[in-house]
Structures are given as structure tokens and as C-alpha cells.
């Protein structure tokens, strides 16, 4: 289909909206969005990003593509267009999967552009309303988070939680929290991951131990890395959490992370804070698949029958951390990997995106589910591997009805090896 430049569309839509004037949007500060103009000018509108954008794929609208959103940013930043409901919609409906970045020949830093824009909008009160901020406030209050998660799980059992939120079944009870065994590596436990998928931490600890290494859990302040906060534009809160997270895992030992979104956020602390300490910390962060793949020869050999496993790459692992081969190397130790045919297109989870944009998230998920269905038709696989809690829960909400099970790669490997750790 012929692709039309977004400017015409934005101007036409903005023409139907009330012009809010410089005094209103000027509250955002000099330059309106305060975006580095060099970042904006990098985009040459070639359109190679479009096939890799999930919202463009499901809507077919240029305004919901990276190129379209950048043009809208330019128009607002220059004062040609106001910050109105149309512009806010363009920004809020981005999944922030960053699938466009590897496809861009110009090296556009779209993730950074979106984060800067959302930060400006949040500061002006245009996005992330108070009720959302209260929810984010709970994330580093770990005892409250655990209690709230158990209460939410009970509400699920009573069918009081709307299905449109896309949550799979939450655990009412969870295994005992892991405890430190040594100082070879730090094992980051985080917030939602520990509340909803602590069993993956337990299996991560077992596999680290199986390689002959010891691990330590974060000290005080390491309860949340700020990944969801940066998506929501809460930059000051993200920086506070980043500083606390860094302080909770001092020294030079590697920091093993088993949540793709958390790992991506922590590897970006150097850019977020811009300090040598933050850069050194980020360099220590390693995804659990990276860590174990380098030591896969130290793991026990599975004695059971090898099964086929479909791999779904979380966006923040594939597109941001660029960790692809290690996942397959780790899984290949115990299983035969089955690839999807969608070139890593987003599943629609996007942190809190599936709850905040359920219609678009559902449409994006339908494409992923269709790809998984094609993979099952061509194999005997009944397991789907996904290394991010949001993705696995978003997919489980529908795949469980088809008899498929979604598990973290670590859980698949630990189960196959039956490690005693």
C-alpha cells in the first residue's frame, strides 16, 4: 500500500481540535518537549521501520508508526502543532517495543525519543494520571506489593478482575524467598517478578548453583529497578529507584537478571543517570540467558526425552539487549528449538501496556498467537519459552485455552534437569 507522510494526517486531525496555544503547552518548558533536535533529525522518513511496528501493523495508520510519531514530535517541538488529545494518543499507544531500532539504517534512537516525550507529557500532567502513579508507588514497597498481589489473586479466583486486563492466574502463595549463598554474582529479584513468578527466581538460583557459582540477593533498596516508571514518563522516580538499586548491589560482581524488561532498564542506567558509577553498574548487568549460555557446559546433562520448545523473544531482550542466540543455546541444552515466522514482532504486553491499552494489545497479541499456532502445526511443541513476566502472562491468558504452556527458559531447563541446587 502507498505510505503517506504523517504531517498531512496530523495537520488535518489537529485542525479539528482546539488550538491550545503556547501558554498551555508552554508549561512543558523551552522547546516544548525538550527533545534533542539531533535525535529528531536523524529520521529520514524512509519507512523501513513500518513493518516492524506492531501498532502500525494492526491499524495500518501512519500516525501509529515510528515515522509518524517522530513527525508529530517534530511538529509539536517546533510549535507548529499543539499538544492535544490527538498527539497524546499517538504517544500513549506506542508499545515501546523498539522493534523499529534494529531495522533503522539511520540509527534513530526511537526509544530515547519516546522516553523524553513521555517524560515531558507526564511532567505536564497529560499522561500517567494519579491512579497510575499510586500503582507505581507500590512497586518498591515489597511487603505491600506481595500482600496486594495475593489479594489480587484471590479476587481473580472470585472472578472480580476484568478479563480485558489480560492477566493470567496470579499465585496466592509463593515459594520462600531465595537467600544468599555467596558473592560470585548478584541475583536481582525485583518487584513484579518476585511477587508473581518467584518460582523462576528459585530455578535461576538452582541453575547458577549447578554451574558451581554462588549468588547474593540485593540489599535494602533493590526492590524495583524502575522499568515500568520510565515507560510511564516518571523520570525523577526512575532515577531515584535506579540510585537505590545500584546501592543495593555494590562491588564488581555480575548482576544476573531474569526479567527482560528489568535487564534492559538496568543496562540503561548509564544513559539515564549519566555518571561513571551508573555506567560501571550497567556494564555489570547480564541477562540470565547470557550468563548461563556461557556456562552451559557446566550444567548437568538431561536424562529425559528432549521436547520441542517454541521461542518467543520478548522485545526488550531481542531489540534492546540484543540477546537472541544465548536463549537458544541455553534451551538447546535440553530441548529442540522451534522458531516463529514473525521476525520477533511484539506480542503486545509492553509492561503495563496490555492493561492500559487492552484493545490494541489484544489485536497485537492475535498476530503473535497466529504465529505460534503456525509453529505448532509444523511441530509437536506444546511449550512456549518467554523470558519476560509481562509477555508470558499476556500470552498465557489466551494460549492456556489452546493447551499450550508458557514458561521462562530457566524454568524449562531447570525442570528438564531436575536440579536440586
Give a description of the structure:
The chain has helices at 6-15, 21-25, 37-41, 54-59, 66-77, 85-92, 100-103, 110-123, 130-137, 142-157, 192-196, 198-210, 227-231, 235-248, 260-266, 269-273, 276-284, 288-293, 315-320, 325-331, 353-356, 358-377, 389-399, 409-417, and strands spanning 185-187, 215-216, 255-257, 285-287, 307-311, 335-338, 383-385, 405-407. β7 (383-385), α23 and β8 form a beta-alpha-beta unit. The chain has a four-stranded parallel β-sheet with strand order 2-1-3-4. It has a four-stranded parallel β-sheet with strand order 6-5-7-8, with helices on both faces. The chain has 24 helices and eight strands. It is an alpha/beta fold and 421 residues long. The N and C termini lie far apart (55 Å). Helix content is 50%, strand content 6%. The chain has three domains: 6-123, Fumarate Reductase Iron-sulfur Protein, Chain B, domain 2, CATH 1.10.1060; 176-292; 301-417, Rossmann fold, CATH 3.40.50.
Helices and strands in order:
Elements: H1 6-15, H2 21-25, H3 37-41, H4 54-59, H5 66-77, H6 85-92, H7 100-103, H8 110-123, H9 130-137, H10 142-157, E1 185-187, H11 192-196, H12 198-210, E2 215-216, H13 227-231, H14 235-248, E3 255-257, H15 260-266, H16 269-273, H17 276-284, E4 285-287, H18 288-293, E5 307-311, H19 315-320, H20 325-331, E6 335-338, H21 353-356, H22 358-377, E7 383-385, H23 389-399, E8 405-407, H24 409-417
Parallel strand pairs: 1-2, 1-3, 3-4, 5-6, 5-7, 7-8
